[in-house]
Every structure is written in C-alpha cells, then in structure tokens.
Amino acid sequence: MDVSDEVRDPTIGEVLLVLVAFLVVVFSFVSIYDLPIQLALFISWFLVIALGVRLGYSYEELEEGLMDGIREGMGAILILITVGTLIGTWIAGGVIATLIYYGLAIIHPSIFLLATLIITSLTSLATGTSWGSAGTSGIAMMGVGAGFGYPMPLVAGAVLSGVYFGDKLSPLSDSTNFTASMSNVKVIEHVRSMLTLIVPAWVISAILYTIVGLMMDVGTAPEEMARVEEYMEVMSTHFSINPIMLIPAAVVIILLVMRKPPVASIAFGALLGVVWAAVFQGIGFFEALGTAYDGFVLDTGVEFIDDLLSRGGIYEMLPSIAVIMFGLGFGGLLEKVGGLRVIVDKISHLFKNPGRTAIGSIVVGIMGNMFGSAMYVSVIVPPKIMQGSYDKLNLKRTVLSRNTEVGGTLTSAMVPWSDNGIFMSTLLGVSVFEYIPYMWMAFIAMILAVLYGYTGLFMWKTDEETR
C-alpha cells in the first residue's frame, strides 16, 4: 500500500508542539543569537516535514505542499521585485526627491501626521492597492516626516493606517474582492459592511494623529526650520526639482486606478524613472538602468539626505524575497498536514455568541498571518473555519467578511515574516516591531469589531431584510 494512503490527521498536541518550536526558533535566532530570520524559517520547514513524515506523508508529497505554498505567493514576490526597481529609478530620476521637496515646502509640520493619513488614504482608495500606495505616496511621506524630525515608526504607523484604510474600502482592491468571495457576499455589500467599522476607526485615528502632531511641535523651532531649509537646498542642488518630475508617479497611480496589472504598471513607472534620470538628471541611460537592480547611491556630505536617498533596487529586496519564500513554504507545509484545521476544530465550540465569534475571527486571521506567512491565507482560513459559527448565530455573511478583514488584512503587516510585514518594513525602512504600536487604525478596528459583537451594533441577522 502507498504510504500516502495511510496518512492521519495530527493531534492537537503534535500541532502545538511544532508551532511552539517554530516560534522559539524564530525568536531565539532573531532576538538572542542575532541570526537571520531567513535561516530560522528554513529550519522550521523541517519541523513540519518531520511531523508530516510521522503522519504518513511521503517526502515528495510534503515538498509538493511546500511548493504550492510558495506558488500561491509569487504575485507578492513579483510586486516586491518591481517596487525595488521603482524606488531605485525614481530616486535616480528625481521623482522621490521632488515629492519630498514639495512635501517639506507645502505641508505644515504640526498637521503632518494627519496629512500623511489623508494622502495615503486617498491614494489607496483610488488605486485599490495598499502596496502600490505605500510604494508611491507612502515613501514620499516617510521622507517628508524624516525631514521634519518625526520618529520614523510613528510616521510608518500613519502611512499604514492610510494605505489599509483605502484598500479596505476600494472595490478595486484584490484583497477586498477576495475576502468578499471567500465569505460568499457581493463586494459592494462587503464594502458597506466595512464602512460601519473602518470609517469610525479612521476618524478616531485621525484625531489621535492630529493631537500627537500638535503636541510634538516638530519642525517649527528656528533651528528645525533651518534644518529643513538645508535639506531642501541640498536636494535642489543635486536634483532637478520641478513639477515634471511628478509625471512618473501620476502615471503609475492612473494605471493602477484603471485596474491595469500592478506588476506591469509599477515596472512601467520604473522605466519612466530611468528615462527621467537620463533626460532631466544628467545620468547616463545605462547607469540609470543599473539603479533598477543595484539601487541609487547619493553622496552629498549631508548624512541624513544620503541615507534617505541611497536605497532601492532589486538587490535590496532579495533578503525580503527570501523571507517571503521561506514563510510561504512553511505555510504550505502546515496546510498540507492540516495543522490550522486541527487547532480550530478544537476551539470552535468556544464561539457561542457574537462577541466571542468576533474575537475568534480576529485570532484565526492573525494565526493565518503568523503560520501561513501571507495575507491570502489570513482571508481564506477565517471564512472556512468560522462560517458555521456565524450561521448558527444567524449572522449575515457580511459580518463574517468584515471581521475577516479586521483579523486578516489589517493585522498582516504586524507579523515580521509575513508577506505584508516584510514588504512594508523593507519599503518604509522601519522594523515591524517598531511600527506596530503606531498602527492605531488597525487596533481601533479590532476593538470596535469586538465591541460590536458584544453590543449587537451593526451585527445584522439573516432574517433582516435590510442592512
């Protein structure tokens, strides 16, 4: 008899042992021994493989599960690669320098955090992509915030709050459409459900960012204003700064709004960056083209500007790509052996009321990010696992889809080895653990979701005719 015919499901003890070992390996490698997380994730493959062999799977079957996990995340890897090229060529072409220059000139420092939230929200709402928004307006606002002297983790929190806000309300968003389809609801109905949660969370976040910005009083002291003027002068000396430099950014945003493929749209924007570098910045075409892989290096003698604008390229993204691939492989292996399914089967009896069900959806979404290492896992798992609990409580599937978004997509950037965590931390130049405390909109949305569950607010029943 073939070995694969004799497989069994893992016990809850076996799954928990593997997951605890996984967390111990990752934590000890990163926090104690200062070893790369890529190595920790690679070693963790063999923890699940060992379990799979014990359950009766052949190595070939487990390797197939590993590859399936990686294949599912190739879209994220391709976007990460193209964003790397975009950053390198846009710096060379003066696009990012111009965005930062105008931001420093136009935005008042005291309302900068609010402006960041609004600008990134509008960009994401129009384009329907949190990654594309972070790679365009998000990068620019990080530069402006650094120029004003704001703590970078705080600015990153405002950027992430904005890009995920727009992404969750845009019918153009892939993740929004995917979540709706997984919960078996129409995307417009899902967006209407999200409005009741994400808008209040955004408003509260906007108030908090405004208060903090006013309290910090950053960039308004004479010495700080002089420093900002120095930064602007240095950038105008080393780059041609004028509105024409903004055309590549406008083109990419328009293409994304038109629902053109993100990889192709971003890659075209990177090509425009090469052209702009050659035409407007006096850089040789092939030298500019090289920044798509190696990134751009600036030497002005001003350390802050040099650090800010010496980055980008595919090469800079390679460590992040490795983390995503190893993480996706781990998630694929875990799915192959049925790890998450076994855990949720054991805890499903706990979801006896809407409040507990909301908490369960959020926890399951976070588990999807932690052990699946990808946002797509975090929006697949909750509907599959939790829909029975919602049906027993006569709750509409729009409540399920809304809570799936809260637990899955809004927390996806909080896991250091998930696709969103790696992408955002690499792009914004801030570690996940540094910016997590400032992702206020995500935390507020989770609190509201649980509050709605226990109070019955916006918890629509299946026998209701209207929403």
Automatic annotation (TrEMBL):
InterPro entries: Na/H_antiport_NhaC, Na/H_Antiport_NhaC-like_C, NhaC_Na-H+_Antiporter. It is a multi-pass membrane protein. The keyword Heme does not apply. The keyword Transport applies. Its main location: membrane. GO terms for cellular component: plasma membrane. Pfam families: Na_H_antiporter. It is found in: Cell membrane. GO terms for molecular function: antiporter activity. The chain crosses the membrane at residues 12-32, 39-57, 77-104, 111-133, 139-165, 194-216, 236-257, 264-286, 317-337, 358-381, 438-460. Residues 162-457 form the Na+/H+ antiporter NhaC-like C-terminal domain. Keywords: Antiport, Cell membrane, Membrane, Transmembrane, Transmembrane helix, Transport. Belongs to the NhaC Na(+)/H(+) (TC 2.A.35) antiporter family. This is Malate + proton/lactate + sodium antiporter, NhaC family. It comes from Halarsenatibacter silvermanii.
